[in-house]
# Entry
Amino acid sequence: MWRRGIFTAPALVLAVYVLLLCSRFLDTSLFADGNSYLTVVVLQLLIFLLPAAIYCKLRGDHIRGRLRIRFVGLEQLLLVLAAAMTLICGALVISFAMGGDQNDLRFSLYEQFAAMTDGGAGNLLYAVLAFAVLPAVCEEFVFRGVLCAELEKNGLPASVLISALFFAMLHFDLPRFPLYFFAGVVLAMVLYATRSVLGPIFVHLLYNLFGLFGRPYMTELYARTGSTSLFVFLLAVLLLLSLILFFGEASRSYSGYARRGLRADDYRPDSPREKGSSPFAEALLTPLGLLAALFYVIVIIAV
# Structure
């Protein structure tokens, strides 16, 4: 039997998809007197936070107590840094494997808004806010805060993988789908390792900052190696080391929870599942979940 949160959560995802697609057809020059950064800020608030706030209001106490809005302790700083390095190195390895253009230094949101980091301090601050801070907050609140809180009623694997699937579809970029899915998995794992939505927000923020400011240096390093295979090998080694550190710190965090008597299975299902039913099917194969997937496929084909 479908649980209500699992049944309704894809409605929020679908609303975000539709609003994001509609934003592509807006004449953004009409907004904010040509201030593109302010336009990006306003649109992100309308596309992500407003639907999420409405959804949480409608769901009431069923969702508010599960959002995990709590501080991340300093003892988990190394975990967050290791996760960010895992995400950065993994994304670069996947990008190389897919034949991505490593000389493309443009950082954009949803292939629509391009960030410009040159200029004065004011322009730089706008860029960080609009293209690094706000996307991390908005996307993580929706996909790791709200969505995982609803999907985890069917168990942790379903929450991690299906939230990552919906997150990958958000970007409407089929060639980069594996990269976004990998990012969604890492970010969901950080959520549960830190027990706070702020954990994936910080990791996402560090990844965005790398996209804004670190890509030129990585491209220069790539050029200096003079060998794609050597560069990918170095990235793979860094990825492996980052994964080892990330999983080690996650294990240490869970050991700390156990010592304090905290339950490791916050995501325990609210009610017994019917015998023979699949947690993935229950969480994904809902009418709204299928509609969100169908919407993604139609957009990919048509746009």
